[in-house]
């Protein structure tokens, strides 16, 4: 993992509050001590699957979806047959899974649908049954 992707990963972790317990906050303004560690609601301003992927997911899964190994293993989304079932990535985003933070809780239903539809149709994945925002809403915790 390059230094810049480590920095981006750290930025995402700080943004989600996941690393709050493990890392010193960069500034007290960035991580207010009051409030929940992970805000519910719409923490990401990007719209469109490509922009969301580049801003939120690529830090760990890499720009081409190839994943990475290092301090932790970030699975490849490239040619990933587990994406055949649309419910799987929706669930991973909304509930998290081990090292994968529940980033979908910081996104709108539309944003989750967009980024899921993006990864299911990029990186050699050709799953045409698009997820709708209503599907995301129904799957939320
Ligand atoms: C902080 C790093 C990080 C970020 C950011 C991140 N992921 Fe993950 N992701 C992981 C890790 C680690 C796993 C493996 C979880 C496990 O152990 O099962 C994972 C697993 C997944 C899986 C399941 C893959 C499989 O083969 O089972 C999907 C799908 C996924 N991530 C999609 C996304 C999407 C879409 C985004 C952006 C919205 C994203 N991830 C952002 C770290 C991350």
UniProtKB/TrEMBL annotation:
<keyword id="KW-0349">Heme</keyword>
<feature type="signal peptide">
    <location>
        <begin position="1"/>
        <end position="21"/>
    </location>
</feature>
<dbReference type="InterPro" id="IPR036909">
    <property type="entry name" value="Cyt_c-like_dom_sf"/>
</dbReference>
<feature type="domain" description="Cytochrome c">
    <location>
        <begin position="44"/>
        <end position="123"/>
    </location>
</feature>
<keyword id="KW-0732">Signal</keyword>
<keyword id="KW-0479">Metal-binding</keyword>
<dbReference type="Pfam" id="PF13442">
    <property type="entry name" value="Cytochrome_CBB3"/>
</dbReference>
<protein>
    <submittedName>
        <fullName>Cytochrome c</fullName>
    </submittedName>
</protein>
<keyword id="KW-0408">Iron</keyword>
<dbReference type="InterPro" id="IPR009056">
    <property type="entry name" value="Cyt_c-like_dom"/>
</dbReference>
<dbReference type="InterPro" id="IPR051459">
    <property type="entry name" value="Cytochrome_c-type_DH"/>
</dbReference>
């Amino acid at each position: 993992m390059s230094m810049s992707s480590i920095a981006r990963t750290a930025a995402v972790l700080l943004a989600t509050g996941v690393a709050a317990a493990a890392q010193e906050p960069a500034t007290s303004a960035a991580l207010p001590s009051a409030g929940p560690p992970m805000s519910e609601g719409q923490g990401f301003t990007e719209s469109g699957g490509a922009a969301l992927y580049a801003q939120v997911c690529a830090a760990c899964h890499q720009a081409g979806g190839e994943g990475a190994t290092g301090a932790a293993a970030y699975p490849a989304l490239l040619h990933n047959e587990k994406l055949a079932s649309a419910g799987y990535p929706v669930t991973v985003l909304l509930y998290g899974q081990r090292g994968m933070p529940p980033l979908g809780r910081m996104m709108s239903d539309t944003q989750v649908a967009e980024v899921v539809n993006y990864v299911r149709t990029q990186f050699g994945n050709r799953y045409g049954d698009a997820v709708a925002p209503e599907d995301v809403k129904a799957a939320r915790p």
